[in-house]
Amino acid sequence: METLTTVPSDPPPSTEAGTPLVMALPKGRILAELRPLLAHAGITPAVDFQDEDSRRLRFETNHPGLDVVRVRPFDVATFVAHGAAQIGVCGADVLMEFDYDQIYAPLDLGIGRCRVSVAEPATRAGKDEIAAWSRVTVATKYPAIAQRHFAARGVQAEIVHLNGAMELAPSLGLSRLIVDLVQTGSTLKANGLVETDVIAHVTSRLIVNRTALKTRPEAIGAWITRFRAAMDDLR
Ligand SMILES: Nc1ncnc2c1ncn2[C@@H]1O[C@H](COP(=O)(O)OP(=O)(O)OP(=O)(O)O)[C@@H](O)[C@H]1O
Ligand SMILES: O=P(O)(O)OC[C@H]1O[C@H](OP(=O)(O)OP(=O)(O)O)[C@H](O)[C@@H]1O
């Protein structure tokens, strides 16, 4: 299966003036942290947006020119890169993984703070010099980030692609290492792993589609300004 990271240049109809802008927001933990920012930016989505059990995915807001859609965190970048949504909020981890050339990330929102790290079983930590190996198995949901990280050290990463519970992989013989998000470190600790290398520090970003920014600069620019002001308000 081919994954498009260079997206077609034709703007979809939703980037044309006159239709509401669509803002893609991630379900889950970022959305919880984002709520005060949305409120300070003056965005009030329809009532059932707050209900994560609601089966609706697209919601009107108090602004006739803005709708919000609630999608999986990894999919926010894909919706925005393809112009299906013109604005979004997304972790830098996801942006690094996909490296979409159609996404511009003008604002660091300072939420969703964590890091992408390499970890290994505490019992084996410090015993081997990974840079001396030619290949290593790595369980992760970030195959591109992991591959780039190890390739830069001359090591070929053989990726075991998981969508969660990476921490189980070393003890069950699925991989030697994992690459995953770490915040407090408690998940690693609870699973007998230690962080050995920080690949990148992560926060969430306001992202926009580059073509939409060219075709609707006032509307999108106004939302960037509002989010910046909302961050200043909350400081
Ligand atoms: N422990 C954490 N602390 C802070 N931020 C985190 C943490 N884990 C993830 N994040 C940030 O939140 C984003 C979404 O993570 P979350 O765990 O809510 O989604 P997910 O498990 O990838 O979603 P799903 O599998 O349901 O699609 C990540 O891309 C990252 O930027
Ligand atoms: O360092 P910590 O504070 O323990 O946080 C790290 C954990 O948070 C994320 O998982 P999440 O809780 O989102 O669950 P998931 O595996 O379903 O994505 C991440 O994948 C780690 O497992």
Automatic annotation (TrEMBL):
Pathway: Amino-acid biosynthesis; L-histidine biosynthesis; L-histidine from 5-phospho-alpha-D-ribose 1-diphosphate: step 1/9. It comes from the Bacteria. One of its GO terms (molecular function) is ATP phosphoribosyltransferase activity. It catalyses: 1-(5-phospho-beta-D-ribosyl)-ATP + diphosphate = 5-phospho-alpha-D-ribose 1-diphosphate + ATP. Its EC number is 2.4.2.17. Keywords: Amino-acid biosynthesis, ATP-binding, Cytoplasm, Glycosyltransferase, Histidine biosynthesis, Nucleotide-binding, Transferase. Residues 72-228 form the ATP phosphoribosyltransferase catalytic domain. It is found in: Cytoplasm. InterPro entries: ATP_PRibTrfase_cat, ATP_PRibTrfase_CS, ATP_PRibTrfase_HisG, ATP_PRibTrfase_HisG_short. Lacks the C-terminal regulatory region which is replaced by HisZ. Heteromultimer composed of HisG and HisZ subunits. Belongs to the ATP phosphoribosyltransferase family. Short subfamily. Catalyzes the condensation of ATP and 5-phosphoribose 1-diphosphate to form N'-(5'-phosphoribosyl)-ATP (PR-ATP). Has a crucial role in the pathway because the rate of histidine biosynthesis seems to be controlled primarily by regulation of HisG enzymatic activity. This is ATP phosphoribosyltransferase. The gene is hisG.
